[in-house]
Amino acid sequence: MTYTVGYFIGSLSSKSINRTLSKALIRLAPESLHFEEIPIKDLPLYNRDLDADYPPEGRALKAAIERVDAVLFITPEFNRDIPGSLKNAIDWASRPWGTNSLNRKPSAIIGASPGKIGTAVAQQNLRGILAFCNSPQMSAPEAYIQFTPGLITDDGEVSDASTEQFLRHFMEEFGLFVERVLRVLPQG
Ligand code: FNR
């Protein structure tokens, strides 16, 4: 079986280390996984006044999530939480009430920062948000990546063998997790 993974980059920066990490993850993933980015940068701020007439950006986001088999969050940590832009996207995805696009959608979280705890606090907070959205999450392995200069090239080649092996293992486990969830949990 092959599965389509929609991936979110939590950073809007053109120089994002998390975007660089995403390139490595796609390179190292098993062949059973195909990838589509789900863009978040053009979403307006969520406002429930718009629930009755969802803007095109919100509709496109929901449709993109509903089209894929699983979602992968690749996110920085901002002030010990996920960036507001990513939280905003999840808020749009979760509404209007009763149409939560993340419901039952298998997910995994990974993130990079220059600091030693590598987005650990933001990831824990994201786990709470995804639990509320009823998205089954891969609980292990966890992946807190300290992004040192040169660790991953702009094309996504990993320079350090142990990091490369770890990221490959993370993606293999994610593939197995997606397969397991989709086998037992009806979607849609
Ligand atoms: C940061 N950074 C940061 N790093 C961290 O490990 N924990 C944190 O809480 C924060 N907080 C934070 C807030 C804000 C507003 C900024 C702009 C940055 C540093 C951050 O990890 C670094 O800028 C990364 O390069 C951001 O990821 P992207 O955008 O390169 O993917």
Please tag this protein with its features:
38% helix, 5 strands, binds ligand FNR, 14% strand, 5 helices, alpha/beta, globular, 188 residues, five-stranded parallel β-sheet
What can you see in these coordinates?
This protein is an alpha/beta fold. It has a five-stranded parallel sheet. The protein contains five helices and five strands. Helix 1 crosses helix 5 and helix 2 crosses helix 3. The longest helix has 24 residues. The model has no long low-confidence stretch (mean pLDDT 98).
Helix content: 25-40%
Number of strands: 5
Poorly predicted residue ranges:
none
Task: State the shape.
Answer: globular
Pfam families: FMN_red
Protein name: NADPH-dependent FMN reductase
Organism: Sinomonas puerhi
EC number: 1.-.-.-
